[in-house]
C-alpha cells in the first residue's frame, strides 16, 4: 500500500462540506484514499512530496468530452460553422476512423486533460466506423490512468430518414442496445473507488429515434448505470425539437424518462425557466461546456440561474474539434468569465466555478467518493505551482482562476502519480504526439 505525505502546501482547497481552506497544510494518502489532513503531520515511513509554493485542489472533473475528436482540431471548412454545419463537415472525416485513430485520439485527449489537472473524465463516443469500439478508448484510459466514465453513444437515424448524420455512420438500434449490455457487463464497476464506470448515451434527440431514447433509459436503469446525451445546445437544436416533436427539448426529455439523478445532459444553453425548474426538481445534472459554446456560437448557458434554482452543474471541455482544446482549468476560467459577461462581475466567484469544476462535476457523475479533499475520500489531487509568473503578485494564490497556472505540477489519481513536475509519467507523450500527427495527416489526405 503506497503511503504518501504531501507536505506544507501553501493552501489546500478542500471543497469539503464546510469549504475549508487549509494553510501550510499536509495531506496523508494511504493506498488510494485520503487518510488525514493537518499541519506538521509525521512523515515516518511516507514518501514525501514537498508542496511549499503550491496550492492543492481536488482533481478536476470533466463531465463531457468526445475524445475521438482530438484528431480533428481546426479542420478547414468547419472552423466558422454553427453546430449543424460543423457536424456535416466533420461526419465524412470521422467515417475514416478505425481502432488506431480512436485509441490515439483518446490517449492524447486524456493526457491533455491530465496536464490541466483533471483526474476524472467522462467520454461520449457515438460513432463506431471500421471496427471501432468503445473498448479502444477504455484501453487508452487504462494507459493514461485517469478515472474514466465512458458512455456508449449511438446514432440510428441517417440522412435518408431525415436525420443529420450520413447513413454510413448510423447503426441498427437492436445492435446498439446489445453492445450497451456487453460493455456494461464487461467493464462497469459500481463499487466505491471505481476507476471505470460505463454509461448509456444516445447522441442526441436529432440522431436517434424516440423508441431508442426510451429503450436506452429502461436499459440503463435495469443495469444501474447513468444516462447522458446532448440537450438544448443551440437555437437549431430547439427548432428541431419543436418541428419534429412538437415540444421543447426539456419536455421531450421528461416524456422519455430522461430526467433524474442518474441523468446528465450536455450544454443546456437554451433552456427556458420551466426547463431549468424541471432539471432542479428532478436532480438532473448538466455538463456546462463554455468554450465549445463560444466556438460554435451557441450562446452562454444560464449557469447562474441553474445554480440558484438548485441544478447540479459540472464542467465539460466538449470535443477538441469544437473547442479546440481540452484544458479543464482554462475551461473553468472561461466559464467564470462568461457568467460575468452575461450577468455582472459578481455573478460567478472564482471559488464557486472551481467548486463546479471539482466536487460539482463529481456529483453530476454520481461520485460522492471523489471531488473533495477529506479523510475517506479518494486520493485524486492536483498540485498547482503558484511560485511562477502566472501567480506572481497574487494576493490570493488559491484564487487559481483569477491568477494561476494552466498546467498542473503534479496529478495524483487513486494515490498514483499521473503527472510529476509537469510531465506525464504513465505514457511516452512525445511518441503519442508523433503517432497522433501521423494519423491526422492520413485523415487529411483521405478527406481532400
How is this structure best described in words?
There is one protein chain. The protein has 448 residues and is of the alpha/beta class. It has helices at residues 83-94, 99-115, 134-144, 173-187, 210-223, 235-245, 249-255, 273-282, 290-295, 303-309, 328-343, 350-364, 429-446, and strands spanning 3-13, 21-30, 33-38, 47-50, 54-58, 60-62, 118-125, 147-154, 199-202, 227-231, 263-267, 285-288, 312-315, 381-385, 410-413, 416-420, 423-424. The strands form three sheets. Strands 1, 2, 3, 4, 5, 14, 15, 16 and 17 form a nine-stranded mixed β-sheet that branches. A four-stranded parallel β-sheet has the order 6-7-8-9. Strands 10-11-12-13 form a four-stranded parallel β-sheet. The longest helix has 18 residues, at 429-446. It is globular and about 65 Å long. The mean pLDDT is 97.
